[in-house]
Each structure stands twice: as C-alpha cells, then as structure tokens.
Amino acid sequence: MAGSIETGSKAPEFVLHGGVLRDGEFTRGTYLLDAAREHPLVLAFYPQDNSSVCTKQLCSYSSGLEQFTKLGAEVWAISPQDVESHEEFARKNDLRMPLLSDPDRTVAKLFGVAAPGVGLRRSVFLIAPGGRIAWKHAALVGLTWQPLEKLTAELALL
Q1: I need a surface site. Which of 35, 47, 115, 153 has the fewest CB within 10 A?
Q2: What is the mean pLDDT of each run of 10 residues along the chain (158 residues)?
Q3: Which pTM does this prediction carry?
Q4: Rounded to whole angstroms, what are the CA distances from 105 to 114, 116, 134?
Q5: Which residues are catalytic, by number?
Q6: Res 80: pLDDT
Q7: Contacts of 105-108 spanning 24+ positions with Cβ under 8 A
Q8: 119 pairs with which residues across the strands?
Q9: Cβ contacts of residue 32 below 8 Å, gap of 6+?
Q10: What confidence score (pLDDT) does residue 5 get?
C-alpha cells in the first residue's frame, strides 16, 4: 500500500475538518495532528457513517471514552463522509469523540489504509506523545474492529 507507515515511525502531519458532540451541541472545527502530539491519540479510520459495523465500533469507543481519558488519550475517528454526515451520525448515536472528514482519502493514503474499491480499511493507530506510531492494526476484512479493552491495554503500555 502506498504511504504505509510502520510502528515506531513518526505519524504524518495532517489537518482535517470535523466536529464533536458535547452536551447536545455539535461543534465544528479544524483538527491538526500537530496540536495533539502532547498526549496519546487513538486514530480510528472507519469506512462509513451509519453502517452497522462502523456504528457498533464507534458506539463502543464512545461509551468507553472515560477509559481512554483516564489514560490521557483522545480518540479521533476518520472517514470519507462530510461533516454534515458526521453530525447526523454523532447525534443519532450519541458519539462523543471528534468525527473527522477525509473526503479525498488524503489522510487515509498517508497512513496507508486507503483501499481501491472499498474506500479505506478499518484501522486503528495509537500515537504516543511526541507523534510516534506506538501500535497499529489494519483489518483485512472490515467486519471486525479492535475492541476497547485491546486499545486501552496497548495505551497503558505507553
């Protein structure tokens, strides 16, 4: 895959538009990886808003958000849909992490998870403080995802 990055390498810088649902308000903004390099970051690439598997995955991460927070980590979810779609998806499912829009799959290509025909591969990257890729998983088939328990166990090792 073009642009594939390995564990231990520096995460590529990016800027994406997105939004986050907090207390019933969906706040739009610009998300810069460089601004998040002081703490652990979970980047969850998912194929599509409102698909059954993506909904289950992001609902599990959102309901366990406090576990990520206790480890000092933020969770950002990235897919190709626009911010309007993300807002509807967040409101419908009470998703409390930022949902970022990568319509041209530019960031997915940087991380090596863009896939011809399917858009992008369901993938998770744990980025350590300072910006190093500490752990990654890219699904061969997008029907499963890395569970909250696996991600928090890996984060605890940072």
Answers
A1: 35
A2: 76 97 96 92 95 92 94 96 97 97 95 84 94 90 79 92
A3: 0.93
A4: 7, 11, 22
A5: 54
A6: 95
A7: 105/80, 106/14, 107/12, 107/14, 107/16, 107/78, 108/45, 108/78, 108/80
A8: 115
A9: 13, 14, 15
A10: 86
Q: Residue 2's pLDDT is what?
A: 45
Residue 27 sits at the vertex; the CA angle it makes with 17 and 52, to the nearest 5 degrees, is: 75
Q: Which two tokens stand for residue 49?
A: 């808003």
